[in-house]
Specification:
By secondary structure, this protein is of the alpha/beta class. The chain folds into two domains: 3-209, Spore Coat Polysaccharide Biosynthesis Protein SpsA, Chain A (Alpha-Beta Complex); 230-432, P-loop containing nucleotide triphosphate hydrolases (Rossmann fold). The chain has 15 helices and 20 strands. The strands form six sheets. Strands 2-1-3-10-5-11-8-7 form an eight-stranded mixed sheet, with helices on both faces. A hairpin with a 2-residue loop joins strand 7 and strand 8 (132-134). Helix 7 (241-250) packs antiparallel against helix 15 (422-432), helix 8 (271-280) runs antiparallel to helix 9 and helix 9 packs across helix 10 (328-335).
């Protein structure tokens, strides 16, 4: 199958003011070895500048998205394109994309008029073949194709504003879903979906979202036999855990979609995991503040979500927060045999001195007394020692990570069984090179 010529035209919608999104999209496409023809950047209609008609009730971002699709279809019709693949700049491709998309397209009926490579089913689809379904109402427009008369029909439908005004809150995907519902068009999709939507702030909805690969539902086929492992970074406050987590992140380990932290270079902590840990043990408390069963269930939910996301990213998952030192039993219960552990070790007295120094400079909840600092560090030290005595793990000395980053990164790669690119290895080395300030 010659994928280079499978679609006559391929475009990606991107706002001029979102150069960051365009760069991120290009990096993902390059890393996934894009198999189709070269992608044209389409300058998105900015719905916050271009006024919507008075009946429109879906917001400026949604209006811009709608008009962008109208103009792309209009351009395809004028150019005589037989088919067009439309992408949005938050589309996310898995690393194995060329292989899985070719397998899918080989099974798609030849008379197809529409293809959704990513999306969400609002009505259960009809099963056509192993890994192929016929769409009855598909939502989302981050990766969909149109062919033949369906291009013109979709254009007419999107431009039928008197009809659209009867449902003034409908976005462009809802309007296309009406065409699916009509049953007149042969629109197919993979099962499971091949392209997801990236994390970050949506220019349409105005909200922040995590990476989304929607689950099809009970009809979904080709479920993964096994999800990738989850690696827990175990280390005290100010022990080098952020430096280690940064290395994992640079090597491609999926730590979360929104990472934060309290260190100058970032803590590489998933915000959802940090919130969970702080609800469980509000810093600097050493007493569990929620039912243990609730903690296990919420940990399991977070870990399972990250493992599913990592599967689509063709990598492994992980998480870092100092409180994990005290959650060894809960981690094992939540994760089972999928758990991997990397322990970052720094002498206890150094970690205590470092957190005391940090606390003296902080304000708010991070500012604690010296006695509290010593108590929480010794508590974490004792809890992690008990956990590490019972699980297989890799220990990385903080001093070794700084003075011999190449050797320690090689040990980490070998332990996790991952295959990072040369660029990822170089980025991991750059994160902990010895001419940078000490970060933890």
């Amino acid at each position: 199958m010659n994928l280079k010529n499978y679609f006559d035209k391929v475009v990606c919608i991107n706002l001029d003011r979102r150069a960051d999104r365009w760069q991120r999209f290009q990096d993902n496409v390059a890393s996934a070895s894009w198999p189709f023809r070269e992608i044209e950047r389409f300058t998105a209609v900015d719905g916050h500048n271009v006024p919507a008609p008075g009946w429109w009730r879906a917001g400026g971002g949604a209006w811009g998205c709608h008009q962008s699709h109208v103009r792309i279809l209009q351009q395809a019709i004028q150019e005589g394109a037989e088919s067009v693949l439309i992408l949005e700049d938050d589309a996310v491709l898995p690393q194995r994309f060329p292989e899985v998309v070719e397998t899918f397209l080989a099974k798609v009926p030849g008379e197809w008029e529409g293809i959704m490579l990513g999306g969400q089913h609002l009505r259960p689809p009809d099963i056509v073949d192993n890994g192929v379904v016929k769409v009855r109402n598909g939502n989302r427009t981050h990766a969909h194709a149109l062919r033949g008369n369906y291009i013109k029909d979709a254009y007419r439908h999107l431009c039928d504003y008197p009809n659209h005004a009867q449902r003034p809150r409908f976005h462009v995907d809802h309007r296309l879903g009406m065409l699916h519902e009509s049953g007149k068009y042969k629109v197919y999709a993979p099962s499971p979906w091949l392209i997801g939507q990236d994390s970050g702030r949506s220019d349409i909805a105005g909200n922040n979202f995590s990476l989304r690969f929607w689950s099809d539902g009970p009809w979904q086929q080709n479920q993964p036999d096994e999800l990738p492992p989850f690696v827990a970074v175990i280390g005290l406050h100010r022990s080098g855990s952020s430096a280690l987590a940064g290395v994992l992140h640079k090597l491609g380990v999926h730590l979360g979609n929104q990472l934060g932290g309290y260190e100058p270079q970032g803590g590489f902590e998933a915000i959802t995991l940090a919130h969970l840990c702080e609800r469980a043990y509000p810093f600097p408390s050493t007493e569990l503040a929620m039912p243990r069963e609730q903690l296990v269930n919420e940990l399991r939910s977070f870990i399972d979500e990250k493992r599913r996301e990592a599967f689509h990213k063709n990598t492994i998952a992980g998480g870092k927060y100092p409180h994990l030192c005290a959650m060894g039993d809960e981690l094992r219960e939540a994760c089972g045999d999928a758990l991997r552990v990397i322990h970052i070790n720094r002498p206890l007295d150094e970690s205590i001195a470092s957190i005391k120094e940090r606390s003296a400079k902080e304000k708010g909840w991070l500012r604690i007394t010296d006695a509290q600092a010593e108590a929480v560090q010794r508590w974490l030290w004792e809890r992690k020692a008990g956990f590490l005595a019972e699980v297989e793990h890799l220990t990385v000395e903080f001093d070794d990570l700084r003075t011999d980053p190449t050797g320690q990164i090689e040990r980490i790669i070998d332990y996790l069984g991952i295959k990072p690119t040369d660029a990822q290895v170089a980025a991991a080395f750059g994160h902990v090179r010895t001419d940078t300030p000490v970060t933890t």
